[in-house]
Amino acid sequence: MLAARIATLGLVCLPLLAACSFSPGEQYDVILRGGTIYDGSGGPPFVGDVAIRGDSIVAVGDVGRASAATEIDVAGLAVAPGFINMLSWATESLIEDGRSLSGIKQGVTLEIFGEGSSMGPLNDAMKQEMLEQQGDIKYDIPWTTLGEYLEHLVERGISTNVASFIGATTVRVHEIGYEDRPPTPEELERMRALVRQAMEEGALGVGSSLIYAPAFYAKTDELIELARVAAEYGGMYISHMRSEGNRLLEAVDELITIAREANIPAEIYHLKAAGVQNWPKIDEVIAKVEAARAEGLRITADMYTYTAGATGLDAAMPPWVQEGGLQQWKARLQDPRIRARLRREMTTPTDEWESLYLLAGSPERVILVGFKQDSLKYLTGKTLAEVARMRGKSPEETAMDLVVQDDSRVETVYFLMSEDNVKKQIALPWMSFGSDAGSLAPEGVFLKSNPHPRAYGNFARLLGKYVREEQVIPLEEAIRKLTTLPAENLKLRRRGALRPGYFADVVVFDPATISDQATFENPHQLATGMVHVFVNGVQVLRDGEHTGAKPGRVVRGPGWKGWEEERAPVAVAEGR
Question: Which of 15, 38, 99, 163 is nearest to 491 (CA)?
Fold first, then answer.
């Protein structure tokens, strides 16, 4: 068994043997003493110490009489690797507030961006559009490439690590704009070159988001070509699939086809079966994924721990009305003939496009949570049905009017999923987790909108509601899914486990009290139960309070030229 554990975990030293590995006079920067250690492997926990020197873990086990500048008694608390947020929209919130408070308070030490759209590469027209469409958070855009954006965050100061996929939508807009047509061979080659550049800068792969215009216009062969470039660099294809509802099974088939044809690992963003009529499809989805995995394809998924999703009113309207971008969409919404056609299509079931409005089942199950214009912010938190009644119009007309008046897609929550399916998905061995939200703080500019509560509670909800209270999976398995599993899927260097030589992204929490507090009615509520958080060896959370430290770094994928060097573990205390 010992040999098997070494082979499986690749540990530099074993917890059971650690007492033999350290000299009494060893000096560290930090020692976490006597905690219950969940190393990320999914194996049973053990009581021991974690020692940190500089930015790395150098000992896991019993460090005996060794000393440190900072020693913390963590007896009775869980000690784990920092959690990985597989789907983060903290791209703008970290510019506003680098503390990443709502994430750090849940133990998130790595935020991963790139669901279809990424913060680079940009051309001049894209930069101008981003400036014009900014909402409550205002910022300059001194970067052009995706790598430059990530470095910009670090230069400003962030408490969490960051990484990103390159968005398939972003490279499409860069070369084609918002037109509904395939790329020419020359445009496609330029799109491939943009992916190549991003991969060499450290992008994790290619991300798509196929229910939205203009991503909706991309055909499967276009996505395969982009994924093939990412595959050359060891990257992943990750997708908000073309359907999560009426054509869910066909969408899974498309993702598997892309994985097979491009010879690339693939992940399903926020797996769900949306709409009551589609809830029974989840078993067939699982069967398709597991058959592909048995074939040798690396297919995985992530999810959030709620039965509602959040996006915009664009997901309530067909892609044709959105062609050309926001301004052309708004212009069409003011044409009476188009409005009449649109009203019919918004209320007519279809498999031609993904209508979250219809999948929610009722305008009472659609909540408006984010407006750009101050004049509309009083509607925040109301359902589409409520606002329609206030205005004396149909919900469909109200949605059209709001897009025009707000000069935005209007941030929207849709109740779509089954609680039973959420639990079934949590138990899948290939499932990791993503908030699909920003990393916020219950203050300042963030209070001008109501986020989905997943921004404040996604990870704490897993550990509190689904692990402690409902016992869907044991704690050691939940931590594996939050750490080692996504780190291995993404081929991250020295991240995602408590192992000597790994970066010291470490969290300490109370399994008996960790809990989400945010609700749909009152979402700006920080999670509780997280006690200490270290990022790259620096303490960011101390006794539940943010220290103000901002040691976050860019985490890069295997296409980056420095990947091999950074992957190598540092020397650890083994009597060397």
Answer: 163
Question: At residue 358, what is the residue type?
Answer: L
Maximum Cα–Cα distance for the chain, whole Å? Answer: 82
- Interval 73-104: pLDDT, tens: 999 999 999 999 999 999 999 999 999 999 99
Please report the beta strands in 248-341, taking only residues with DSSP state E, as ranges in sequence order: 266-268, 299-303, 308-312
The predicted structure's pLDDT at residue 562: 81
Are the C-beta atoms of 509 and 78 separated by less than 8 Å? yes
Q: Which residue has the tokens 């498309």?
A: 254
pTM: 0.93
What token pair was written down for 482? 């939050």
Confirm if 259 and 265 have CB atoms less than 8 A apart: yes
Which residue did the predictor score with more confidence, 573 or 409?
409
Rounded CA-CA distance 129/525 in Å is 32
Q: How far is CA 437 from the centre of its chain?
A: 7
No. of helices (H) and no. of strands (E), the chain: 20, 21
Q: What is the CA radius of gyration of the chain?
A: 23
The DSSP symbol for 88 reads B
Return the bridge partners of 309, or none.
414
Query: Which neighbouring-strand residues pair with 156?
Result: none
**Cα gap 80→56, rounded to integer Å:** 14
Q: Is the pLDDT of residue 406 over 50?
A: yes
Return the amino acid letter for 545.
E
- Adjacent-strand bridge partners of 83: 108
Q: What's the token pair of residue 258?
A: 């892309």
